[in-house]
Amino acid sequence: MIKKILIANRGEIAVRILRACKDLGIQTVAVHSTADADAMHVRLADESVCVGPPQPRESYLNIPAVISAACISGADAVHPGFGFLSENSTFAYMVEEHGLTFIGPKPEHIAMMGDKIMAKKTAARLGLRTIPGSDGSLSTLDKATKLADEIGYPLLIKAAAGGGGRGMKMAMTKDAFSEAYESVKREAGIAFGNDNVYLEKYLANPRHIEFQIIADKFGNVIHLGERDCSLQRRNQKIWEETPSSVLSSEFREDFGYKVAQAIGELQYLGVGTLEFLYEGGELYFIEMNTRIQVEHPISEMITGVDIVREQILAAAGNELSLSQYDVKFRGHAIECRINAENSETFLPSSGVIKNYHCPGGPGIRVDSALYDGCRVPPYYDSLIAKLIVHANDREQCLARMRRALREYVIEGIDTLIPLHLKLVENSDVIAGDYDIHFLERMLDPASHA
User: Fold this and answer.
1) Residues 368-412 pLDDT 10s
2) In a domain, 328, yes or no
């Protein structure tokens, strides 16, 4: 059994992992930059190691520093959380080469799914429907233009190594294609060190739906249903909920089984999320995230399964503690991402928290690393908290979310709480009538007229 885990992350996800470790009786090691010396995850961990200055590349993304911290602290496993090094196959290989357990999938599966072209090919081989598009990367504008004419406009140009909403542009017409193609190729080379791009047919009004899976080394795979992540801004998720209002229970059961079976054939290990676009009664695979997701708490709320606990136990070589038959879906859950951003301009906000009060009551959960007097630094992702609400049905869940948002106090910085208050009062959101373009239409109706 794993005895000590180094958590190679920060913020709320580091605290979330730390709590799962405590429940399992596992010792914890926090890593931190100099900017995070007084952070919540550092305060709660059994021990901590500073891995560098504030800039991520010199601290949280510094592979030698993180692995050195694991070795000198006597950790026997590393949990990467999400973001930073979580989907870096080189990091996973190096963790294993140093005799440590990587709490995540096999490095080859991280590499496979990190290449979006390879991921699509793998999904198709496993029997999952994919969006019409190129079979591989397109190295020249001439080849790309010819294929674009065959696929038809509008279409998306996407970076093979992209993800998290980055590395994609839409071309509405042939005249706009060459500029969009060159832009994505250039940006991909800079951001990901890989300028390979591919094309996909643009779906007009899809929902973004994902399935959560957990697998052990014995070939057991379960799914925890779907999450609807369609409320997005610039391809970044803002609001997630489960179950989705567009899938029937029969569809969920059948498709969840299909996804679990596909992952079983892949001999995958640990947790993962398969993401799809839903339109016209069909789910089209777009990518797989080989890590814990930001929005995993809503799946935990409706199933009662501690996903991080199962992830740690699977990495330790244990069999899953439950079968698909044991997974029961109860009620409805919604997560609002509370980002340190202005709710109108979306400019990042940093500073000292002067007054902090969490909402409470039945069905309310807050995942955060904030406390009175803590500093939100300007160097990292703007996600500072997640407000999660669970209730017997969607109507009650919305009512609880409305109450919880009004109770939530974070002073000293700007947050997205005002935006979520608008969403929870919006008649279309209340009716469950939205797609991936809804939020941008709501924020800028003139540009979508």
Assistant:
1) 999 999 999 999 999 999 999 999 999 999 999 999 999 999 999
2) yes
Residue 136 pLDDT > 80: no
- Please report, for the domain that includes residue 43, its CATH number: 3.40.50.20
pLDDT tens-digit readout, 161-212: 876 667 889 898 988 898 898 888 888 888 888 888 889 888 989 999 999 9
Calpha distance 325→406 (Å, rounded): 38
pLDDT in tens, 216-225: 999 999 999 9
Whether 115 is in a domain gets the answer no
Residue 102 DSSP code:
E
Q: Say if strands 101-102 and 77-79 run parallel, antiparallel, or are unpaired.
A: parallel
Measured between alpha carbons, how far is 388 from 317 in angstroms, rounded to an integer? 30
Q: Which amino acid appears at position 45 of this protein?
A: A
Structural domain contains residue 88: yes
CATH number of the CATH domain containing 394: 3.30.470.20
Contact between 148 and 174 under an 8 Å Cβ cutoff? The reply is yes
- Phi, psi dihedrals of residue 163, rounded to the nearest 5°: 160, 165
Q: Specify whether 348 is located in the same domain as 390.
A: yes
Q: Are residues 98 and 141 in the same domain?
A: no
Amino acid at 167: G
Same domain, 403 and 292: yes
What local confidence, expressed as pLDDT, does residue 163 receive? 66
- pTM score of the predicted model: 0.92
Output the pLDDT for position 282. 95
447-to-80, 174, 203, 441, 444 alpha-carbon distances in Å: 39, 21, 19, 8, 6
* Structure token digits, residue 138: 């397109």
10 classed as catalytic:
no
User: Is residue 48 domain-shared with residue 143, that is, in the same domain?
Assistant: no
Candidate list 10, 227, 291, 400, residue with the active-site label: 291
Q: For residue 162, what is the domain's CATH number?
A: 3.30.1490.20
Domain containing 47 equals 4-102
Cα dihedral 364/369/375/376 (nearest 10) = -80
Is the Cα dihedral 145, 150, 153, 158 positive or negative?
Answer: negative
Q: Do residue 190 and residue 211 come from a single domain?
A: no
Query: For 252-266, what is the mean pLDDT?
Result: 97
Q: What is the pLDDT of residue 137?
A: 80
From the list 295, 424, 420, the residue with the least C-alpha distance to 367 is 295
Of 201, 236, 255, the domain-final residue: 201
